[in-house]
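Course exercise 7: structure representation. Students receive a sequence record and must write out the corresponding structure in C-alpha cell form. The form below is the worked example handed out in class, using Glycosyl hydrolase family 35 (921 residues). Read each field label carefully; the graders check that inputs and outputs are placed in the correct fields and that the protein name is recorded exactly as given.

STUDENT ID: A-19
EXERCISE PROTEIN: Glycosyl hydrolase family 35
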Amino acid sequence: MHTTYAANTGAAFSYDDKSFMMNGKRVFLNSAAIHYFRMPKEEWREVLVKAKLAGMNCIDTYFAWNVHEPNEGEWNFEGDADCGAFLDLCAELGLWVIARPGPFICAEWDFGGFPWWLGNKEGVKFREYNETYLKYVDLYFDRIAEIIRGRQLSQGGTVILVQVENEYGYLTDDASAAAYMSHLRDGLLNRGIDMPLITCVGGVDGAIEGANFWSGADHHYENLVKKQPDTPKIVTEFWSGWFEHWGAPAATQKTPQLYEKRMFEAIQTGFTGISHYMFFGGTNFAGYGGRTVGSSDIFMVTSYDYDAPLSEYGRTTPKYMAAKRFSLFAEAVGSLLLDSAAFDTAAIIAPKGITVRGRKNGEQRILFVGSDKEERDTVYLTLESGRTLPVMVNPGEIVPVLDGFQVQGGVRLTTNTAIACNEMVDGIHTVIVFAKDGQRSLVELNADEEIVHSDDQPLLYTRSGDGKTISFDFYHFNESQDVRVTIGDQTLRLVVMNTAAMDQTWRIAEGQWVGGCFDVDIEAGEQLVACLSESAVNGELPAGFNPVVSDDEVAGLRTGAVHQKAPALGDWVSSTLDLASVQGVSCEVPQDFSSFSQPYGYLVYSSQIESDSDQKTTLILPKLQDTARVYVNGTEVGLIREVGSSSIEISLRAGSNSLQILVQNMGRLNFSPYLGEPKGLFDTGYLQGNVVDLRSGWSHGEETVHLDRVNKLDGQVTLTRTFHLDGHDRAIIVGAVSKPLLVNGKEVPLEGYQNWFSHETVDISAFVQQGENVIEMPYMKSPVNRLELLSYHSSNGIGEWSMAGLEDGVPSEAGLELSGADKKVPTWYCCAFKKPELPAHVHAKLKLRLTGMSKGSVWLNGINLGRYWQIGPQEDYKIPLAWLKDVNELVLFDEEGRSPAKVKLLFDEQTSRSWVQLGSI
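STUDENT ANSWER:
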C-alpha cells in the first residue's frame, strides 16, 4: 500500500504515477550524487556548478554519521563537515536535494557510515529492530533531522526528497523489515520531515521506492510497477562507474558510450528520474575507505574517483559530456518524455540486428533505435504509415528518433538524431540538433501554416507542395550552422552541431546559452561558466564567452599551454619503528581496534614464544580481519593479505622468540550481512597448525573437479570432498563456502549467509572427527579465489600478549635522521615543501605519486590523506590545495621502510590549460 502525502496535493512539489512535478510542471529528476564529506569545503562550489552545467537539477548526498559523531557525544558540523552549509550552497545554485541520512549509507565508506564506537555497545545489532542500536540512531536523527528539516522545500530550502535507510531489500523482504523500517520512517516524520520519503531496493509503507542498477532497466521497472503503480519510477542509484580495491584492475569497464546507452535504456523503459551514482566520487580520506563483500580482502582504495563524470579532482571527462548531452536532450523533449506511455513497435519494420522501442503521447512519439551490429550503419525504418526513415547508429548504441514531436504550437518535428534545446533563446524559439562527427541527419518540420525558408545557405532540403513541410538533409560540420525559417509571424531557429561543438555549448539557465552559435551577454551566469573554461583545449575560449578581463589578457591566454612545475620533494628525514622497544598494554588475548579504543591506524601485537629447538611451524590466526605484517625476532616474515582466518609459516630458534604483528585497519565492511566485524587481531595465535587448499579434489559423480577450473556444472550439483584430521581439535573453513554446507552428514549453521558474499569464515570444530571427514556443499560459481581448511590444537595457543597503537602524524623529532636507502623496517619519512605560487589564470590540481613505496599512510600538515598501497590500481593521491600552507609538512609511514627518493608531487594534465576567471565561483 502506498500512503499519499497531504503535501503532494496542490503543493509546489508533487507527483503522480508518471513523474515528479514542480509547481504543476513535470520535471525530469536529473540528480548528481555528490558527497560533501569526500572533498574539502572549498571545492564544493566548483563541483556543484559543474554538475549544474551538465544539466543536473538535483544533488543526491548521503550524510555520514561517523563524520559527524567521530567519538560518542562529540558532534562535528563545522568546516568540511558542515553539511548544512552544503545544502545552503545547493539552494543558492538553484539545485534541489535528495537527502539520504541513513543511518546506514554503504557508499564504500567505513562501517557503512556507522561510528566505530557503536560496535562497543553491549547487545547492539546493526540494521535491526534492536533497542540499543535504535537508541543511538534516534540520537543521531535528533541532530541530522534538525539540519535537513529547515532546508526542505516546504521551509524555503531545496530538499525535495528524504531517504529512509539504504538498500535494505538486499538483506530481507519488506515484511520482515517492516518494524525496523517503520521506526526509521516515523523517526524522520516525527522530527519534522514533511517532504516525500523515498527508499531504494526495499520499501516501507509511505515511501516511494526507487531502484539501484546499471543495466536491466526493464526488470527493475516492472518490479517497481508491481509494488507501487501510483508513483513515479526513479533510478535512485544509476551506477555511472564502479569503485576500486587494492590489487584489482582499474574499474574503467563502463565506457562513456555504454554509459550513454544505459541512460537511454532507462528512459525508453519509463524511468523519469535518474540519480547518477556517482557524478563526482571524491576521496576516501583518513581511514574512511571501507571494505566490501566478494572476497576476504576487498578493501577500498583511497581514491573514490569511481570513473565518474567528474574525476576525483573535479575535472570534466568524456562521461561528463555524455551526461550533459543526455540531460539536455531529456530537458528538450521533457513535455513528451514525462507524459508518455510505451507502445508496441511490432508494426515498425527494421533490419536484422536493429531493435526499436517507443513511447508516445497522442500523435507525438520517441523511437529508441538500438544496434547489435558490429559496425556503424545507416539503417532504414519503415513506419506503420509506410514511410521510411534513415537512422545512422553505431554498434551498441541507442539513437533517439522524434516522430511528430511538437516543438511549439502548430509546429511538429521529425528527426533521426537527438536535440538539445527547445526553448526561447534571445527572443527566438531555438532547437539544437546534434549528431556525432561526420554524420548526416534528417530534420523535418511540419506546420499548420506555410514554412518560409530564405534559401540563403547551400543546404539540401525538399518542400511539400503546400509549403507546410520542409525536410532538411544536414551534414554535421565542425562549424555550427544557424538555419532559420518563418512560420506565420514566428521565427524558428535550427542550430546544427556535431558533438564536439555540442560539448562546448552550455545552457546557463532557461533561455541562456553560450558557445557554439550563441553569443549571449551573460551576467548572472558568469560564475557558472568560470569553472568550465578548463575544458577548452590549450586555453582556447569557446565563442560567446564574456570574460571579466581585458582583450589583451584574453589574447595572451590563448597563446597556448601554461607550463607549471610542481614543488620538488627532497631532504627527507626518517624515523624507524623500533619493534624491540615498543611498549604496549598487557593482555591475555589480542583485542580488536574498537575494544582497544583506537578507531583507525595501526596496532602492534607482541608476544614471546619459547621453543625447545630450531623449527619451522605454521602459525594460525583464526580471527584476523585486516592485513598483517608478521615479524619474528625483529625480521619480517611476510605480509598476510587473505583474512578472516589466516596462516603463515614462521621459523623459530631454540629458546625465546619475539613475535610481533603489525596490523593496519584497512576499513570496516561497508555492506554485508556481517556488518560490524571486529578489526585487527582478536584471538590468540596457534602454533603447529595445518593448512589444506580445498579448491581441488572435489567429487562430481565419477569426475574429480577443481573449483578454479570449471564455470558451470549441469543441474543442482552437490560436490563431495574428504580431508583428514590428525591430532587437531579445531578446524575452520575459510573462503567461498556455499550453502548448505554439510560436514560428516550434519549441516553447519551459516547465520546471515548470502550467496553473493562469496567469502565465509566457518568454525566447523563441533562437526569434525579424528581421521577421515567428509564435506558436502553445492557447486556455486567459479573461479573460487580461496577455499582453505585451517586446523590446529587448542593447547598450542600463544600466551601473554601486549598491544600498542601507533600515533598518526609526525614522529618524535628525537628520532629523525637524514634518510638514505631502504630501511627494511616500518619507517616514518618527513619533508617540507613550499606552497606553489600560481598565476590567476591557472586552475591547478595537485597530486602525490608514491613511486617506490610499499604500503602505509600519508599526512599533510597533520591531516590524514588516507592509506596507500603500491600494488595498484591507484598510483596517485590527491593533495587538496585548500589544505596547503605557505610551508607544508608531508609525512609518509611506510611499512617496509622503502626509500622515498622517487616520490614526487605533480600537477594533473589540465593544470596546463589556461583558466579564465569570469567571476567568483
